[in-house]
Amino acid sequence: MNSNMKYFIRAVKYFFYFAFLTTAIVLVLVATGLASGDINELFEGGYNALWKMAVFFAVVGSVYPKLGFISRKMYVQKDKEQIRDAAVEYMSARMYDFESETPESITFRYRGTLGRLTRMHEDRIVLTRTEDGYIMEGLRKDVMRLATGLEYRLNPQSHVE
């Protein structure tokens, strides 16, 4: 799947995710009596506000994949087998299971059901070999945490003072 199609699918997913989340919050507020069930009292402009919210969700959904997903360079100079074994062990300890491997990359998926749902099944972490190290790709918060930890584990001597 090319990157434009992947981006489009993520944007559509996040549009529906934000719409669902907002709907769930509104329904809880109405069910608990904290908000009126009349749409004209609930939203300024009544039904007219719904298309404005949909446009807002479309804009946020179309921008979020660009901000929420990153590729981070990891400076590691070890052979592929050393990296592979350490990466599988490290990722497994952090609830990521080995999914697949190619000559250039290793792919991991999050193990927990709730974690996968909160990540909207966008829980794949890909570790790709480059000329001078590796690149880790995935959700920003996960990549930042995992790449830093894995890089530290693979280069312990560079972090000793």
List the helices and strands and how they pair.
Blueprint: H1 3-31, H2 39-42, H3 48-68, E1 69-74, H4 80-93, E2 96-101, E3 105-110, H5 113-118, E4 125-130, E5 133-139, H6 140-154
Antiparallel strand pairs: 1-5, 2-3, 3-4, 4-5
Description of the structure:
By secondary structure, the chain is an alpha+beta fold. A hairpin with a 2-residue loop joins strand 4 (125-130) and strand 5. The mean pLDDT is 86. It has helices spanning 3-31, 39-42, 48-68, 80-93, 113-118, 140-154; strands spanning 69-74, 96-101, 105-110, 125-130, 133-139. The protein contains 6 helices and 5 strands. It has a 5-stranded antiparallel β-sheet with strand order 1-5-4-3-2.
Keywords for this structure?
161 residues; alpha+beta; five-stranded antiparallel beta sheet; 5 strands
